[in-house]
Prior knowledge:
- The structure holds two protein chains of two kinds.
- By secondary structure, chain A is an all-alpha fold.
- Chain A contains 16 helices and no strands.
- Chain B has one domain.
- The longest helix of chain B is centred in the first third of the chain and has 20 residues.
- The interface between A and B is medium-sized, with 23 and 28 residues.
Amino acid sequence: xxxxxxxxxxxxxxxxxxxxxxxxxxxxxxxxxxxxxxxxxxxxxxxxxxxxxxxxxxxxxxxxxxxxxxxxxxxxxxxxxxxxxxxxxxxxxxxxxxxxxxxxxxxxxxxxxxxxxxxxxxxxxxxxxxxxxxxxxxxxxxxxxxxxxxxxxxxxxxxxxxxxxxxxxxxxxxxxxxxxxxxxxxxxxxxxxxxxxxxxxxxxxxxxxxxxxxxxxxxxxxxxxxxxxxxxxxxxxxxxxxxxxxxxxxxxxxxxxxxxxxxxxxxxxxxxxxxxxxxxxxxxxxxxxxxxxxxxxxxxxxxxxxxxxxxxxxxxxxxxxxxxxxxxxxxx
Amino acid sequence: xxxxxxxxxxxxxxxxxxxxxxxxxxxxxxxxxxxxxxxxxxxxxxxxxxxxxxxxxxxxxxxxxxxxxxxxxxxxxxxxxxxxxxxxxxxxxxxxxxxxxxxxxxxxxxxxxxxxxxxxxxxxxxxxxxxxxxxxxxxxxxxxxxxxxxxxxxxxxxxxxxxxxxxxxxxxxxxxxxxxxxxxxxxxxxxxxxxxxxxxxxxxxxxxxxxxxxxxxxxxxxxxxxxxxxx
Lengths: 332, 231
């Protein structure tokens, strides 16, 4: 990949973000309750899985000699070690065989090349049951599970299109009905369909057109509301869509995200999240609450920045949903 | 879109006038006068100012329902056009609003023999992003009339997706006046993406903001234009 012109400032967002993440590894570490029946998945396995997913994408889109690539690989090694080379995921799978989140975390690590054959064999057995296939989930989550299954060698052709039409995005909802929850749902549909930005061709043409048309007002209003986390996800979607349309980088939006960062490069979930007690001291604070209010938005900023700065230079050949609108496309 | 800087009294007069227009548009005919009959004294000044704020939309029922306006209304409208010419340093939207009133006056008043006024130009929108473009077009929504060509409508016609984005943004920001004005323009523009869902969008804007007569006016105008009303 070659970077489009002048995206160095955007790439810097990814570098700073992953540097902050690197100093907060303890926040991603699995605690003693990782295998507890009533363990807090949202504060243990979820952050670790998200770390793995973003770092796998960063590693995929950067060259092996790139320091950013090295940092992403080091964080992936850390995440894999946290699972004891996948063994904790296998044990978790034995404790909760019909839970989908172990497979989803495993799939993120597997996308970076880490494998645990015994886990995959066990997952395949469970996935053959009607009970697994009929797990009741919203369509967006189901698309994510289908993607995770694919990553583990479990193939269920024809399921994704059926699920897609039942999502807010796939049903081409009126764009003015966009709200926070719809935003998170639509970004994840895009991530699942494109394997987290690896395959922009996974987006059907009608969704490319729809997203190219409506991302600008969604992004504009989320940024105005200080919704930095969702804005980061929308910027990632914009970068994926731009691979198909050749749309320019939304520089104003990136300027806003850059300005929203804390001194150490971390991005708050939203505008009202508290700043460090002493903004001059980059080392403060290290409490769990601060981590939970910053880790995801920081990962998303890194994810979006890498997808944006690693975009192929120039417009794509033979496509371009925007082209039908002639000279339009005012700055986002 | 806020009438900031105008007095509460004037805002009330504008709202009353807009309510009358909405009522006439909804009634499907124009059997009663919308504009005030007398324009003498302080109350008359207020009424004229309200007509000037509402612009050409003060005579919208006559334009869209194709019914001849009451000559007394035309006289009031003409008085408002003549009483409030744009100042030399007036904003482009003010100039265009006045231009639109002069155009309407020529249409409804056979006694006006002067040629069409010069168009003020659209240079101030050359570098505007879609957010500003939509905002300014919403302010100039009275120019959004079927079959009525001008530089502003031609400019809007080149930017259907930008105006549609502005409509989405306005709804998201709960700026119902801007949403209604943008929605009115969208009914006239070619190549608006179908996915915008304009019909249900106009219903939603009316549901959420329709208690404001200025919102209801644009929504009702848009509905009539969608149903094929011509000027």
